[in-house]
Design a protein that fits this description.
The protein is α+β, with helices and mostly antiparallel strands. The chain is built from five helices and 17 strands.
């Protein structure tokens, strides 16, 4: 018998996820998210990120999350199956994920701190190219980057937006971060950097009035920013559960061989 006695069931609002949730709801008793030992999440990768962010709002370490894919890509999800949930939870492999912490200062002086599990991305708000100073551990490494944007990705998020922006795939457990420009114009040949995950990254907007930039932590956006500080939040930890044959580290590795 699995040690996950108190289980929460959450589902995206799509018809497929709601129908699957109705089937699973008949298998036993379910508890609210804030009382759960484990969370069963039905939907796609975007919904799983929402679920993980809800877990981050709980004091201490949030409950492990076992996702089943009823979305489109489902890279972070297990296969949807109605039967055998107890056995799957007993055999599931845990993967710990440490989120990023994004601290934003806006042009009008407001400060906000948000977590990001996949990536923090800065994006131009208008047709004007963004102009950004990049620092690593308080050292200026790029005095001026002209680009559509720039992002910082964790290993768990390196196969998402980061990969589509031609960033590197980072193996889980590599203790690395990807710093990836989005459509860089100057320096023309700079294609990003791989940094140790203990690095503190600073991104300062050089002309925020003429070239406004927004900052996005996964799915939450702050507009008209002046500066962003990004680092790992080691006080928080999330756990994803995967079927042994569907392990996240193996999926990330194999993404490098997909044409």
């Amino acid at each position: 018998m699995t040690g996950y006695v108190r289980r929460a069931l959450v589902a995206s609002p799509t018809a497929a996820a709601q129908a699957a949730a109705a089937e699973l709801a008949e298998l036993g008793e379910w508890v609210p998210l804030d009382r759960a030992d484990v969370v069963i999440a039905l939907g796609g990768d975007g919904f799983l990120l929402q679920t993980l962010h809800a877990a981050l709002e709980r004091p201490g370490a949030g409950p492990p999350v076992f996702g089943m894919n009823l979305g489109t890509v489902g890279f972070l999800m297990n296969e949807w199956r109605y039967h055998g949930l107890d056995t799957r939870l007993e055999r599931a492999r845990p993967f710990r994920v440490t989120p990023l912490s994004m601290t934003v200062t806006t042009v009008d002086g407001r400060t906000r701190t948000l977590p990001a599990i996949n990536e923090v991305s800065l994006l131009r708000e208008t047709r004007q190219t963004a102009s950004i100073e990049v620092t690593v551990n308080d050292r200026v490494v790029l005095p001026q980057l002209a680009c559509d944007g720039i992002l910082v990705a964790t290993p768990a998020g390196s196969t998402a937006y980061n990969l589509s922006a031609n960033g590197p795939i980072l193996p889980l457990g590599s203790a690395l971060l990807a710093l990836t420009p989005i459509s860089p114009f100057r320096p023309r040949r700079w294609r990003g950097a791989i940094l140790p995950d203990k690095a503190r990254i600073g991104l300062r907007i050089l002309d925020p009035a003429k070239r406004p930039v927004s900052a996005v932590a996964d799915q939450r956006e702050v507009r008209d920013i002046a500066e962003v500080r990004i680092e790992m939040d080691r006080a928080r930890e999330l756990t994803l559960l995967f079927d042994p044959e569907h392990a996240l580290d193996d999926r990330i590795t194999m993404e490098q061989f997909i044409a």
